[in-house]
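ok trying again, last paste got cut off:
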Amino acid sequence: MKEEIKEILLKKYTKKELARLRYLYVCLFHEISKFFLLYVIFFLLHMGHEYLAAVAALLSIRNFTGGIHLHTYWGCLLFTFFFLFGAIVVSRTIAFAPPVQNLVLLAGGLILFFTEPVTSDNRPELTKRQSRIYGSIGSAVTFVYFLLFLSEETFTFRNLFFWVIVFQILQLIAAKIHKKGDHHEKNSTKSTRVTL
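nice, full thing came through this time. structure:
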């Protein structure tokens, strides 16, 4: 039965197209399963609503800026858990005055504008034009948060949004430094990247 399905698919699609479809389905399955698994964990930790808000804020920026990418499902799951858990815990314990948050967001938007997105090694490198477009959109989204923070001093999840954005910018800088070091290592010693 499996061979028959494969033959039917090969009549309609090339092997390259099938590989791309498989990659797409695997990515979707991984992302959706991680989302629900993490939701259950955060729900059990009485952080379900904060988790959803943090994911919404993170995705609004990370989709355009990239960041640290791990090569395994479990590595990515753990990194995402600690990233979001850290942002939630810090948002519950540390709150800067609104003017300080506004200033940090403005600076963050400028950092994102001048920092190229960091893509996964599984994806093709962005062209300079694509990099500039994505970086500009990430910066613009951060500027929208800045305007929201400027106009509304108190709203639900304000502090959480702030810390998610700060964590995202910090991990983007870390990813950029790591990628530069990795690129330097590959060029100078021909070493291979270690899968986390």
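cool. The chain has a mean pLDDT of 83. The helical segments are 2-12, 15-44, 48-65, 73-93, 98-114, 128-151, 158-189.
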